[in-house]
Amino acid sequence: MVCSLRKITDNSVDDILQHNKNSAQLQSPDVDSMGLQRLPTSSLPHILTNQTRSPRSAGQGRWGELTTAKSLKDTAALLSGLLMAVVQQELLGCDLVVLHDDVDLYSLVVQDLLLMTNSRQVVVVRNETDLAEVIWVSTGCGGYVILLEYPEPLLSFANTHHNTWDYKGRYVMVSQRVEQVEALVATRNGKKTEHILGVVKGGQEGEWRVYMNMLYWGEGVRPVTTWRHHRFTFHSDLFPDKLADFRGAVLKASTFEFPPSIMYHHDDNGTLLYRYGEDVAIIQNLARALNFTVKFNEPADGYKWGININGSGTGMTGELLRDEVDMGVANLFLMGVRYEILTLSAPFSHEGLCFMASVEPPVPRWQAPYFPFHPSTWLAILVGIILFGPILCLVGFLSGQCGDEVSSLAKLGFSWYYAFGLLIREPQVSVPRMDSTRVFVLFLWLYSMIITIAYSTNLTAFLLVQKAAASMETIKELYESGRELTVIGEGFLPIITESTDPNLKGLAHAYKLHKGHDLDEVFDEVHEGKSVLLENTGFLHFHIVTHFTHRGVSTVRIMKECLNQYNIVIALQRNSPLKRKIDVIISWLEESGLIKYETHKALEFAATTKEYGSTGEDTKANQEEGVVALSTDHMQGLFIIAMHQNMSTQMLVYEGSSREIYTPPLLPSTSQYRNLRNVGLSLRIGLSSPISLDTDSLSELLKTVVQRELNGCDLVILHDDADLYSVEIQELLLTLPNSRQVVVVRNETDLAKVVWVSPGCGGYLILMEDMEPLLYYANTYHDMWGYRGRYVMVSQRVEQVEALVATRNGKKTEHILGVVKGGQEGEWRVYMNMLYWGEGVRPVTTWRHHRFTSQSQLFPDKLSDFRGAVLKVATFEFPPSIMYYEADNGTLLYHYGEEITIVQNLAQTLNFSARFAEPADGDTWGYLINDSWTGMMGELVRNEADMGLGNVFMMGYRYEVITFSAPFSHESVCFMARVEPPVPRWQAPSFPFHPWTWLAFLVGIIVSGPILFVVAFFSGQFGAESTSLTKIGFSCYYVFGLHFREPQVVEPRMNSTRIFVLFLWLYTMILTITYSTNLTAFLLVQKPAASMETTRELYESGREMALICQGLTLSIAKSRDPYIKGLMNVYKTYKHHKLDEVFDRVLKGKSVFLENEEFLNFHIATQFTHRGVSRVRLMKECLTQYNIIIALQRNSALKRKIDIIISWVHESGLVGHENRKALEFAATTKKYGSADKEKSTNQEEGVVALSIDHMQGLFILVVLGCPRSAGQGRWGELTTAKSLKDTAALLSGLLMAVVQQELLGCDLVVLHDDVDLYSLVVQDLLLVTNSRQVVVVRNETDLAEVIWVSTGCGGYVILLEYPEPLLSFANTHHNTWDYKGR
């Protein structure tokens, strides 16, 4: 119950004791003085089962020894003083809750605590239900003082009431035995509470020992301090931040393979080597920031995410509910059902939930000739074909009655033949004579011209782009299809069953849960069209690319309609203390862009592995790009039409049966160590008699330094066996609370035992008379030293301190403090190393009369301000990262470029001056030659330069000898090769078709002539057929003429021969349309020769591989790709100043040049590009990406600050901005500016007029053939056709320039009407790679067929002579319009 607050005075203590004695006589042995019935022993934690539970004597309980009011008051006063000190020191400003029972001692203590200003609630605890009245929620910090003689109700409450507990509160529990504190810490709530303090009665009078829970630091509790004589024996942090540093604790993470979030890398035997992926990178960054080690485990029951079943879940969820693991990761969605039972971190990504379905097979290509028109259009054309013959026959007949009309037009068979010929634009020999017939034929010409233009324009697109079959895209269509819905995650069923969409809800009947052990079975069912898979988009896209994509074509797809988007989180135990820190670090990672970067790296690596690598990209590299020659696969429909000519045979049989027969296809040398040891010996103090060092003042000084500057640090004490420093001082130092290790140093090998690595801060007290072992060690062992540690060295002479500062390790250590004996009694002078502030050491303060004479900072941050120090930067010219600006006489004025900008930002922020200098030996990055490094690497290894720049890659062999900064960029390593000369233009007429297509046409030409001869010959047996067609030579000539669309004067007379010729017209019309459309592209775009694009082709070519960085050969030599590794046999390293020689060899096709992509692109743009055309190029296949860093001396003190500033500069986008400025400036300089810009101003832009060079093939054909008679050309139409083509070519050039500059990557829709000019332009636009839809607009209803919605950006090219339908549509259809389109 909550007690009423009333003040009890000291005079009333005797009355309290007497009242409790009387009460005890009236109670049964099983009931205590509070009226609280004792719990049975079996209900207590195991740790308390052996405690004695006898009834309390005289109301005093276990404090029975306090039999007098005086002793009770003294004990209460001591305990009150302790608790009030804790409250004032640690809980000031917190809401204070006091839990107590009716023990006399605690009643007195409670009265004192009520005097505190922050008391909020006092609760008397008799049983577990009283604890439900506690206010466990606090707006700020909450403090809980627990004064319970019998804590069983509290322990039971802490094990059962998980949501009614303040996990962030600070608990102070007073107890007789430490086991009671451990019992509270061992409860389910106690294990997740960061701050629990135990105050336990000590062995001496007035002594209380203070214990602290360890949380993730270890098991149980450990002693922190002791309260004795009204004060703590030493001042420790009673409530330290246990989540800032986990001190190497091992945390368990439940996970499983779920690419690309979590991927497994195995060795050749199938053994798991490590995990990687986006989620794994998040956990590894958390482990690095909080200093813990993660142990990944898969759920033991074989389930994946798992579900909650009556409080005992399966899979990952079950392990978290049972507190068997600390966290769970595997693309975990933030869903309500999980939020109710687990604690979820802040989201670090988000994904949509989509359906994977099979791709329906495309419509067969043989149907392509039928695609350009809608079925209704075909029906209208068919009706026209049927009607035009009889109408023409009727008009011809009636005209013949009124005048001299051609008699053939009055015959129904010939009129149909004549009308069909006009529809497919075949010139006819017979010419109407009467005006009435001519008017009808004129309109028939106009009609057929529009039909054929519209057909030919759309036909080219359908031949090149295979038409997709109608596919299932919505949930409604999925529901109606009756396909099975497969899911891997157990938590998706509630999303479906609780949906308000009846179609989605209906999918619950087709729902199938798959454990995910054999995903191949799931994918097989999806691929076969039996089911669809519901999963997140990242997972589906990854598997589509790696499993179902070949040559850029996928056999499965993601449906357009998806479910909701979900945030992705890390799952934690309910009320886990981890959440607070994890959320902060996730926000840092997200803001820094590190999550996306790690994901990108993981995906790049996965693509190189045998587990996840796809062959789709390799085969794609070999695909032909640009304009494509039409193969026999594209032309199936044409050949089928050709085969329909057999109808003529059927007609021939009919004719034969109905008539009578008629006769007429680094290390220092041994001598240097010896000299160093001699220097140390000369500094050694040679004393013949013991000297008093004033141990009291020295020990007090050291204790003050430790408490003031090294509080909370792990402390290491180094001393030797000399009598100079007495054992008394050592024993005093061992009493310090943070002492970690004491090492007796006799020689260098003893120093190898020192723990030089500390997860937090490390302090080193050096009490050595003989300094030689330490000086030798600091010059030799560079990787076994605490460079961030704080060193306090006690010495008799300042020269010894300077000797330590002058060692190789000492020069890179930020904090070294020298304590040197002064001239007066009890005086010690304190010196500090200068690091980058100057040479040697300087005095800081003096210890005299038990205090420092001045309050100077002993360990200042020497890296926040370098005080104008000059740092040497080794670098060299390497554009565009590092460029030189020179005067007209060649004098270097200054450096600029991306990396120079980064160093200038560092210098400005840290207040130092950078002195740039090229390596003295003339080398660039440098190599290891006879155990000695050259170039930049050599200067860093010898500590001659402070940092190095020059597009330095983060590579393993460098990591062994220098220190890397954080990466500020990344680059791929690529091959520069010569651009092969294009295929000669005279071959252009052969390019539009694939060789197999040409072969098929040749066969067709060869075969068609004899077939026509046979048909005509037999037709002549049944009627009056043209005698010329019955001659084999003339029939072949006739067919050849039809293939070139040349008008023939001889007309077949019999219907069987006419049907054959009609299909031959249709066949040749489609053939010439496709040829002419594709020929235009090949004439304008010169076809490149077959080029070397892959490392395999490079290896097989036998060309030399030129390098200027020998370090790349190590990566090549270690490659698992046999072709890349084979390039080691043909590589040659050149000096950096011989780049011109390398480029010359590349231009001659003798070598390829391997270097980073940005460097190569810069030189291609500035040296090898003329009028927009480059003579060299980058091969498509590149090697690995490398991070670019600043190189530092091994264990350099600069790294810590540089990394922070690089992250600031990177996040601000300043690097990219400055890089762009540098490149813009470089383009204006004489040294790097390209002359291409000036020369290009004279170039003709847009569409190019066809020159003699374009038309070489045509003239060769003319030379090879016979010239035609001058009387056969349509010279009257040539002028008009030429001006139309010229105008169309100019307009096409403009539009293609706009598309390439502004609409590249957008879905392109072309709207046009049947104007000839626009029809020619549309044919050119179809060559653009992002064409999506071409719509002929005759009226407003045609615009309804346009796809106005685009997943990315949408582009719309409008070619309408009469825009009225568009204007009307734009005024009326407000919801059917792409407002974001271009």
From TrEMBL:
GO terms for cellular component: plasma membrane. Its main location: membrane. The chain crosses the membrane at residues 378-399, 444-465, 996-1018, 1059-1085. GO terms for biological process: detection of stimulus involved in sensory perception. It is a multi-pass membrane protein. It is found in: Cell membrane. Pfam families: Lig_chan, Lig_chan-Glu_bd. SUPFAM superfamilies: Periplasmic binding protein-like II. Keywords: Cell membrane, Glycoprotein, Ion channel, Ion transport, Ligand-gated ion channel, Membrane, Receptor, Transmembrane, Transmembrane helix, Transport. One of its GO terms (molecular function) is ligand-gated monoatomic ion channel activity. Residues 260-322, 880-942 form the Ionotropic glutamate receptor L-glutamate and glycine-binding domain. Belongs to the glutamate-gated ion channel (TC 1.A.10.1) family. This is Ionotropic glutamate receptor L-glutamate and glycine-binding domain-containing protein. It comes from Petrolisthes cinctipes (Flat porcelain crab).
